[in-house]
Design goal:
about 220 residues
Length: about 220
């Protein structure tokens, strides 16, 4: 995907996820997401906080005593507590068309953000939300090469991933095959897609990713 295609995919994902959020009941907004300790409401708030500037990020890090994960979590929770559900959905929809991203990131980060966090919201609610394979492949490549915060290439060394629905492969070692969406979830520490993966490396992958919720973190923030 070229840069224009990446932004077009990001716009579609933001709009589609906003539509899903509009359909949620009050009870669904309060349910746990795939991220440990995060409600659906918190994940939605996290996505809208890509508008946060560097000054606010620094303040958040100071409040969290330098912990990136805690700063991201606390900022999302504070914002979620102040905003009604409908406003969060509207803010996410209003981000479509934006082409800004944070210093030190690439245009792929906003796409990665909405793809993965869309699953964090949709899967525990039992609401189908397909990932377009080309978009998921672009995001998976970024996760594999970016290091912090996922460190996928280091954490999953000795495994070779290959998508069955996209031209995408990474790593060396025991094979893990399946839909690129399931691979992307595994690369970002989410066990929800492991049952869709096959190959000699799946048992080791399951051991490394773990059976529980994903750590409460997200892709690096991208400004609108």
């Amino acid at each position: 995907m070229d840069t224009d295609e990446i932004w077009q995919a990001t716009d579609l994902e933001r709009l589609g996820l906003a539509d899903l959020l509009d359909e949620l009941s009050d009870e669904e907004w309060e349910r746990p997401s795939l991220c440990e300790g995060w409600r659906v409401r918190d994940v939605a708030a996290h996505l809208t906080l890509s508008r946060t500037g560097p000054g606010a990020v620094l303040v958040g890090l100071l409040r969290a005593r330098g912990s990136f994960d805690r700063a991201v979590r606390d900022a999302a929770r504070r914002y979620a507590a102040r905003r009604p559900a409908a406003a969060l959905a509207a803010e996410l929809r209003g981000m479509a068309g934006s082409r800004r991203h944070a210093v030190g990131t690439t245009p792929v980060e906003p796409l990665l953000d909405v793809l993965v966090h869309g699953q964090d919201i949709a899967l525990p609610l039992g609401r189908p939300r397909e990932m377009p394979p080309p978009a998921a492949a672009a995001a998976a490549t970024r996760v594999w090469t970016m290091g912090f915060p996922f460190h996928a290439r280091k954490r999953l060394h000795g495994l070779r991933f290959a998508a069955t629905d996209a031209v995408w492969a990474a790593g060396e070692g025991r094979d893990v095959e399946g839909p690129i969406a399931a691979i992307l979830l595994a690369l970002t520490g989410r066990p929800a897609g492991l049952d869709r993966l096959t190959g000699a490396g799946t048992a080791e992958l399951r051991h490394r990713v773990g059976p529980g919720p994903a750590p409460g973190r997200g892709p690096r923030r991208a400004a609108p």
